[in-house]
Amino acid sequence: MEKRRNKRYPRRFKVRYGDRGFTHTGLTADVSVGGAFIVTTQPPSPGVRLAVEMTLDEGRVLHFEGMVARLN
Q: Is 8 helix (H, G, I), strand (E, B) or coil?
């Protein structure tokens, strides 16, 4: 049984992120209204607030802030 409040969609978008500028890169594995799972070789610590730049398929760029909830 799914416990998440928001449905997750498997989508792969390029992301740049960091706590002081866009210093790291990664790809999303899935996204939802409430979050995104980012695959990266440089995972930040839980609780860190990040600025995120996500490039969508059609080349549009989204900017938002989020907090790292957990690491898998």
A: coil
Question: Taking the model in full, what pTM does it have?
Answer: 0.85
Give DSSP secondary structure letters for 28-67: EEEEETTEEEEE-SSPPPTT-EEEEEEE-TTS-EEEEEEE
What lies within 8 Å, CB to CB, of 42 at 6+ separation is 24, 26
Tell me if 44 sits within 8 A of 20, measured CB to CB. Answer: no
CA separation for the pair 40, 7 (Å, rounded): 22
Q: Render pLDDT for 14-65 as a digit per residue (tens, 0 to 9).
A: 999 999 999 999 999 999 998 999 999 999 999 999 999 999 998 999 999 9
Tell me which residue of 24, 53, 66 sits closest to 41, measured CA to CA: 24
